């Protein structure tokens, strides 16, 4: 497709654009690259940050393809096409999906390194419900070659390119942090689902500090999941035992007296 404004950029496009901008800012005559001027780097920093943020909100972390329903997130706040993430986890678990899937998995590990180590099973992901795109604005990619959707909080109508957003684990709704903070009763403002403010609020595409905090919470979150799983199995076992001990009453048979 031509540069008609209807194409989507990928993560590779963003990285290529950043490399080009960095090269243009280098005014050194050294054949080895020299140093990049501070003023030039500062001038290009904000557009680069905007492009990276837009790409993270619009593309799958694993494949770089445009996000499409159903969408999932991990507990560090990255977004994925659910189908791609499930395939990754199946291959990681040793389930042979296809030779093509095996190659994709190997490439994803090679590109991401240890950044995917926290993804071990389906317990490390949850479904999310992204809000509708803003009708008033669309983020324009730095070079002007692609348009990216800009999501809008359904509660206070702020946009994801202007305010931080988070997902509520139980129901998956993605809202602005401000809207979640105003929910003093710890219930989702959209559907009323209850949540734990400490463990169930996941910053989506958050800052380095937010990701670091979420990483520190991973062990506590996994322990909680294990407790819930153990409790569920115990309840199932108890129900099965009660069913096995229950002896149905015999019908009261009355003798038939011949007339």
List the defining traits of the structure above.
3-stranded antiparallel β-sheet, 8 strands, Herpes Virus-1, 6 helices, 259 residues, alpha+beta
Question: What does this entry look like structurally?
Answer:
The protein is 40% helix and 10% strand. It is an alpha+beta fold and 259 residues long. It has a domain at 11-15 and 47-204: Zinc/RING finger domain, C3HC4 (zinc finger) (Herpes Virus-1, 2-Layer Sandwich), CATH 3.30.40. The strands form three sheets. It has a three-stranded antiparallel β-sheet. The protein has a three-stranded antiparallel β-sheet with strand order 7-6-8. A hairpin with a 4-residue loop joins strand 1 (71-74) and strand 2 (79-81). Helix 3 crosses helix 4. Mean pLDDT is 79; it is low at 26-39 and 142-146.
End-to-end span in angstroms? 93 Å
Q: Unreliable runs, pLDDT <50, ≥5 residues?
A: 26-39, 142-146
**Helix fraction by DSSP (H/I, runs of at least 4):** 40-55%
Structural class: alpha+beta
Mean pLDDT: 79
Radius of gyration, whole Å: 26 Å
Biggest β-sheet: strands ordered side by side in the sheet: 2-1-3
CATH architecture annotation name of the domain at 11-15 and 47-204: 2-Layer Sandwich
Task: Say how many strands there are.
Answer: 8
Number of helices: 6
Order of helices and strands: HHEEHHEEEEEHEH
The fraction of residues assigned to DSSP E strands is 5-15%
CATH class of the domain at 11-15 and 47-204, named Alpha Beta
Largest sheet, in brief, is:
3 strands, antiparallel
Q: Which word captures the global form? A: globular
CATH superfamily of the domain at 11-15 and 47-204: Zinc/RING finger domain, C3HC4 (zinc finger)
The CATH topology name of the domain at 11-15 and 47-204 reads Herpes Virus-1
Organism: Symbiochloris irregularis
Pfam families: Rtf2 (PF04641)
Region (Disordered): 23-54, 219-259
Biased composition (Basic residues): 220-237
């Amino acid at each position: 497709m031509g540069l008609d404004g209807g194409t989507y950029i990928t993560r590779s496009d963003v990285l290529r654009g950043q490399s080009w901008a960095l090269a243009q800012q280098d005014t050194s005559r050294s054949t080895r690259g020299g140093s990049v001027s501070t003023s030039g780097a500062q001038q290009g920093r904000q557009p680069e940050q905007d492009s990276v943020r837009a790409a993270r909100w619009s593309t799958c972390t694993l494949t770089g393809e445009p996000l499409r329903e159903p969408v999932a997130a991990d507990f560090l706040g990255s977004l994925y096409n659910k189908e791609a993430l499930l395939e990754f986890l199946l291959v990681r678990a040793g389930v042979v999906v296809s030779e093509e899937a095996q190659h994709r998995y190997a490439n994803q590990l090679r590109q991401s390194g240890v950044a995917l180590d926290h993804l071990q099973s389906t317990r490390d992901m949850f479904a999310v419900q992204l809000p509708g795109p803003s009708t008033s604005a669309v983020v324009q990619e730095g070079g002007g070659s692609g348009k990216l959707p800009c999501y809008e909080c359904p509660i206070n109508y702020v946009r994801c390119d202007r305010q931080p957003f988070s997902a509520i684990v139980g129901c998956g709704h993605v809202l602005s942090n401000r809207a979640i903070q105003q929910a003093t009763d710890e219930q989702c403002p959209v559907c009323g689902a209850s949540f734990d403010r400490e463990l169930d609020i996941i910053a989506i595409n958050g800052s380095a500090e937010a990701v670091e905090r979420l990483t520190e919470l991973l062990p506590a979150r996994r322990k909680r999941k294990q407790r819930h799983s153990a409790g569920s199995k115990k309840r199932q076992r108890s129900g099965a035992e009660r069913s096995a001990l229950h002896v149905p009453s015999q019908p009261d048979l009355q003798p038939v007296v011949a007339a």
